[in-house]
Amino acid sequence: MAKTKLAKSPWMLHYDGSSCNGCDIEVLACTTPRYDIERFGIINTGDPFQADILLITGGVNFQSESVIKQIYTQMPDPKVVVAVGICACTGGVFKDCYNIKGGIDTVIPVDVYVPGCAARPQAIIDGVVKALEILQQKREAYAAHRRQGKA
Amino acid sequence: MEAQNTIEPITMAEFIPQVLRFKQEGWHVVQICAGRIPEGYELSYSFGRDYDMRTLRLAVAEDETVPSITQAYPGAFLQENEAAELFGVHIVGITQDYRGKLYRIAKETPFKQKG
Amino acid sequence: MAKQSIVPFGPQHPVLPEPVHLDLVLEDEVVVKAVPSIGFVHRGLEKLVETKDYKEYVYIAERVCGICSFGHGMGYCQCLEKIMDIDIPPRAKYLRTIWMEMSRIHSHLLWLGLLADAMGFESLFMQSWKLREEVLDLFDATTGGRVIFSVNCVGGVLKDMDDSMLKRIVDTVTDMEKELRPIAETFLRDYTVGTRLHGLGMLSAEHAKMMGAVGPMLRASGVSYDARKLGYAAYGDLDFEPVTAADGDSFARCEVRIREIFQSIGLIRQAAAKIPAGPIAVPVKGNPNGEHFMRIEQPRGEAIYYVKANGSKFIERFRLRTPTTSNIPPMLEMLKGCQLADVALLILTIDPCISCTER
Asked: Which chain A residues have a beta carbon less than 8 Å from that of C45?
């Protein structure tokens, strides 16, 4: 059945909000042999139209705001957002900067927060696995909603 | 290795001739930096040749215009645009002038004010 | 004349982990002009120095970039030590050198992986990053962090390494040297890699100098310049020569970085053999007053740190000119005349670090 399969092969998209790069390379490191996030059936894609999970690192600045919103709306429903690193959660050390709005949740809804500076690969994987559960719930709710709509 | 690393004050009249002399002598632009002083801005243009570095220090008033060095050094356009956008220094004649749209920040000239 | 069209490139692009946007003016498939627009990761960190204690700002300076983090912390501290006339203990200098060279190894391996990924050579990407994990383990063991270390302080370093740790570092990098050889061989001998990189993005020595290219990009064009030769930290005591290549194309840039990894391994071995015993930091009293321009060779090239202090605990101006800021103008020159399909690869060969550039 289609509804149980989505969380077994989700595609992941990564975007750098305005981070220092530290969490970005840790996200990439997650896909490499040592940590191997692909064992959860995840494929790292570059195309928002094919992605189910959005991993965002760094806080939001005034220019990346529109890009993040655009990527989010381009992703098909159901979708989950994981904020990776303390900057993505709250703004972190960059919170006082004149060009930082704050965490990712000031722009789009966030499902899972992964703290840390920089977030460790283990923590990122943990966050993604939590996101998979939420994705499954959303998927079921979405399917139920559609059935009701048809009935 | 001991290498030259000096800061030399220069007047506006001597500035462009000195930059052109550097160009002829084979110096390249290392960095351009703006700073705030009570009377206006101070601009530091660092030039390098081999391991030596010489910095020209130019003091400008707040509404004074500064000629761009991009005619001589086209690679300087990014850093000149940055000084113009973040500090509000009036640099004229940049070959690729973004006119305050390099970083596209919400706040205008954030470095101009203290704190 | 062929019809011109403008193709937007980025900010979100599969090849680049960081956001950068280019407007590419094309004639058919050939790029005639590239106009960059940046600012997607601009935070305004230089401004933050006015409201933070100068000793606290070390941690912010490190977070300018997660890849060059150690160098940024070290550059900022060295600049202040110069202004305040502090002579840091020799052991601290050697420790900084070892960590700096480890940073170089991890940064270059990271770049090699991204290059392989950009060419679609996925197994090579995985191999490079697998090897990189070895250095990250050493960072984890010596500093407690994988990408952000926070071991620099004004006046020295915060953590020491004992002899067993130094031995472990030397053993690990020696093993890595063996494992790196087949990977390097693939990059330098493989036919597919060669056809993709040879002759792509030519930059002459004269042009590279005048446009302000730095680091491996400059050295790949045959200019022997490496700011480590200035002798800061312990580099004055160590024996090395800048790695150069003559061709000035993308392949030369790849070759220079690979040879620099081997060079860094050698430097770590030299430093571990020579490291003197003693304290790792000196106490720092008072506030800085003065200004200085500091030059440091980061993995990506020369970076400039400028601090202007006024005698209070808040610094008046901190300026960081990063290698990528300097490498973007020559990159734009290189892009002219290349094929659209090569644009992503060419951008990658300068080893761009956008979060450094925009701060």
From this structure: 94, 97
* C 52-81: CB under 8 A from A: 59-60, 63-67, 69
Q: How many domains does chain B have?
A: 1
Contact C355 A33 (CB under 8 A): no
- Domains located in chain C, CATH noted: 4-358 (1.10.645.10)
Chain C, 119-178: which have a CB under 8 Å from a chain A CB?
Answer: 125-126, 129-130, 132-133, 136, 145-148
Q: What are the angstrom distances between the C-alpha of A98 and each of A15, B79, C46?
A: 22, 20, 10
Three-state DSSP class for residue C344: helix
- Asked if the model's pLDDT at residue C101 lies above 70, the reply is yes
Is residue B108 one of the residues assigned to a domain? Answer: no
Euclidean distance between CA atoms A133 and A110, whole angstroms: 14
Say which residues have a Cβ less than 8 Å from residue C333's Cβ, sequence separation at least 6. C203, C207, C211
Instruction: Give the CB-side neighbour count of residue B54, counting CA atoms within 13 A.
Output: 14
C-alpha to C-alpha distance for C348 and C112, rounded to whole angstroms: 10
pTM for the model: 0.88
Q: Which fold has domain A8-150?
A: Rossmann fold (3.40.50)
Q: What is the pLDDT of residues C33-44, one digit of tens each?
A: 888 877 777 887
Q: Taking the domains of chain A in order of start, what are their residue ranges?
A: 8-150
